[in-house]
Amino acid sequence: MIKLVDFQTWKAFPAEMRTPERIALAYAYDRQKKKFIDRMKRVYIWADLDRVDDGKLDFLAVENRVLFYNTALAPDVKRSLIRNSIYWYMKLGTRQAMEEMIDTVFGNENTSVEEWYTYGGAVPLPDRSRNGGNTNFHKGFFALSETGEKCKIPF
Is the pTM here over 0.90, yes or no? Predict the structure, then answer.
């Protein structure tokens, strides 16, 4: 079977339509068709993010300015961060987004964020929030209680 990229349009013309102008037009059309199909392949990265190489994941994270991204994370965590980054940017600054990011990076399912005004924090600064669950939040860092791993907060 002939691939669409390799098909030459002018060969489908009947003999009486094979003028130099029409052949030139078919050639130009075939070149544009090939460029379009090549560019279309770039969309496959987003459609099939589970099969993308780790190097390309790092590139996608930089392109999308993914929060909490680190090249040392596990590939499934990287994919989850990239997949959800646009959604989190829409919800950035909310309690829900913060809890989801913490859950994704640290693998917790029971994280809760207590906002500064609910427990009497004086000023809304990065070190004025408290975190429930298995993670502690203090002085601009998320720290995993058991291992002491740190992840910088993007303020």
Answer: no
Q: Do 10 and 18 contact (CB within 8 A), yes or no?
A: yes
pLDDT digits (tens, 9 = 90+) for 34-73: 999 888 887 777 778 888 888 888 988 988 898 888 888 8
What is the rounded CA–CA span in Å between residue 7 and residue 40?
17
* Residue-wise pLDDT tens digits, 93-118: 888 888 888 888 887 777 777 776 77
* Helical ranges in the chain per DSSP H: 20-40, 44-47, 54-64, 75-90, 95-106
Contacts of 119 (CB under 8 A, 6+ apart): 130
How many CB atoms lie under 10 A from the CB of residue 1? 3
Question: What are the Cα distances from residue 121, in Å, to 58, 91, 93, 129, 130?
Answer: 37, 23, 17, 8, 10
Question: If you search the block for the tokens 């002085």, which residue do you land on?
Answer: 139
Contact 64, 147 (CB under 8 A): no
